[in-house]
Amino acid sequence: MNTNTSPIQNVTVIGAGVIGISWTALFLAQGLNVVVNDVAADAEARVRQGIETLKPTLAAMGMPIETLHERLRFEPDLAKAVAIADAVQENGPDRIAFKRKLWAEVEKHAPLHTLFLSSSSGIPTKHQARDMLQPGRVLIGHPFNPPHLIPLVEVVPHVKTAPETAERAMAFYRAIGKKPMLLKKEVPGFVANRLQAAMLREAVLMVKWGVVTVDELDDVVTHSIGLRWATGGPFVSFHMGGGPTGFAGFLKHFARGVQLLWLHSKISPVRFSGSLNDKLLAQVADSFGATPMAELEAARDHKQLALLRVLHAGQS
Amino acid sequence: MNTNTSPIQNVTVIGAGVIGISWTALFLAQGLNVVVNDVAADAEARVRQGIETLKPTLAAMGMPIETLHERLRFEPDLAKAVAIADAVQENGPDRIAFKRKLWAEVEKHAPLHTLFLSSSSGIPTKHQARDMLQPGRVLIGHPFNPPHLIPLVEVVPHVKTAPETAERAMAFYRAIGKKPMLLKKEVPGFVANRLQAAMLREAVLMVKWGVVTVDELDDVVTHSIGLRWATGGPFVSFHMGGGPTGFAGFLKHFARGVQLLWLHSKISPVRFSGSLNDKLLAQVADSFGATPMAELEAARDHKQLALLRVLHAGQS
Predict the structure, then answer these.
(1) Beta bridge partner(s), residue A37
(2) What does the alpha-carbon distance between residue B277 and residue B266 come to, in Å, rounded to a whole number?
(3) Fold for domain B192-312?
């Protein structure tokens, strides 16, 4: 459903890769006017084709898909592309030099009220904004792939960002049905990718030790903690697992055991290198690696969509 | 649906705590005869009341709930309780001395074909079975709480367990609609709890650093990686995130960045102690801690059930 009541109507999407296309489709389906800026000659063809591919999912999420293409423009000239933007969503290459030059240029040509949002998961705002007159205007607006489907957007302000600018970014994402989370500090990887990485380390360790194979590890996750964490995060889950006193009970009864597991894991090095990578890749090839990627993705998106309907109905 | 075609018909449940009651209700709903062994005087009252509480969930999962109580017996004498058991599911206190004595006694009185299964998450089979004549008869059959709802059962054989015994344990759990996973090595915490612990460490670190609060951390999880891991585990997810070459692409493009996050986390100590615990508990109290536990649990079970229907329809 298009519940967009934000003052933001004109959005410029910079960079028409997978993430840029997903944002573009979502913005259009939420009733916004979108200008796509990308230097590639085939950008328009790829974006319009990408939108067609995403249409069924957007429709399944209850969004109108009739007039998407009519409100979409392409403008390879950056200055012109941002001239009337209320918000810029940047999805260019994750290279510091690229971002620095880009934002300094965008700042010259965009209106004073324009929100500058970067999808980057890797380049902190302090690096991106170094050459700007007002570096506080750049915020991270990091989606979880694919942006049109997964609700989370991590919003990370520059240290000089005014609170009201951060709030405008939050309001923008809320208005288009996302679940923005404002991080109070900028840390490498932000929150979601750090959590992912932490679990991956333990998952790789289990395969390295030969306890399970990669597909068995995945089965463990989808049949236990994945189900748990789709319905409640780790803190509320351990609160419920702590008995009548909740999280205090967890700390009393289980904290020591958990810390022993941390220690047992910490003393075991994990490094992606020759023999470990070979083992992982051989097991991948022997299991889901044999299924065409498009088939895996279609199955995932189908389940994901069904889940979102069950869990987040009415939130977007 | 009761799809039980296993030769196991008589199960003895030792220990009628929360886990024992959940197993009992599931076994009964899957058409088995159950004997509950517990020394507490109020065991029968508690178990029969517990079954009533779980009935709506079992019914919602499509299991027949009409004759549960008729096939349930109570036998405080251990020797008599296991006399005709095809399988024993043990849920007693996690104390080595208790388990040792218990299994040595059970071995004396149970038939030769009986499967000996321990729900323990903490006591390895080598310790549990030390005083048995045939220590290979004890296996871990570790459920994920609550056992009647979450599919995963981690099956961990003793080093002396015959492969056909492990296979009978797997077949037993499969027959009652569970998703048993056979671990090839016994490691502290088994797999699911190690993964949980690893993610909890990073979650606690994010709160310790003040990046997010406990409820914000939970929101990040339920709106991103929780959704992802309910539909696919970390390996297939990173395979899909690796581009056309799959997991090889992930290793090429992202492994280094992931390892930097591991390092950044590793050098930051996390220990459940005074000021950190105070911070966690204060944030819990300010958010979901204010909601009655029964209300949190009901909401979780409701969502969990909806999810299982969407994701695992036809598996049980």
Answers:
(1) A14
(2) 20
(3) N-(1-d-carboxylethyl)-l-norvaline Dehydrogenase; domain 2 (1.10.1040)
φ/ψ (deg, to 5) at B29: -65, -20
Q: State the Cα–Cα distance between residues A90 and A106, nearest whole angstrom.
A: 11
- In the sheet with A10-14, reading across from the earlier edge strand, the strands are A72-74, A33-37, A10-14, A87-90, A115-118, A138-143, A152-157, A179-182
pTM attached to this predicted model: 0.94
Distance CA B292, CA A153 (A): 30
Give residue-wise pLDDT tens across range A92-142. Answer: 999 999 999 999 999 999 999 999 999 999 899 999 999 999 999 999 999
Do the Cβ atoms of B264 and A214 come within 8 Å?
A: no
Four-residue CA torsion sign, A83, A87, A92, A97: positive
Please, is A301 exposed, middle or buried when counting C-beta atoms within 10 Å of its C-beta (0-12, 13-18, 19+)?
middle
Q: What is the ipTM of this complex?
A: 0.95
Query: Of B211, B205, B236, nearest to A182 (Cα)?
Result: B211
Question: A143 to chain B nearest CA, in Å?
Answer: 9
The CATH code that applies to domain A10-182 is: 3.40.50.720
| Range B238-260 average pLDDT | 94
Q: Could you give the 3-state DSSP secondary structure of residue B80?
A: helix
pLDDT band at B174 (very low <50, low <70, confident <90, very high): very high
Interval A252-285: pLDDT, tens: 999 999 999 999 999 999 999 999 999 999 999 9
Domain boundaries defined on chain A: 10-182, 192-312
Q: In what order do the strands lie in the sheet with B72-74?
A: B72-74, B33-37, B10-14, B87-90, B115-118, B138-143, B152-157, B179-182
Neighbours of A291 (CB within 10 A): 12
Measure in Å the smallest separation between the Cα of A108 and chain B Cα atoms: 32
For the segment A229-254, what is each residue's pLDDT rounded down to a tens digit?
A: 999 999 999 999 898 899 999 999 99
- B271 → closest Cβ in A259, A288, A306: A259
Spatial contact of A183 and A156, defined as CB atoms under 8 Å apart: yes
Task: Using CB atoms, pick whichever of B194, B195, B235 lies closest to residue A284.
Answer: B235
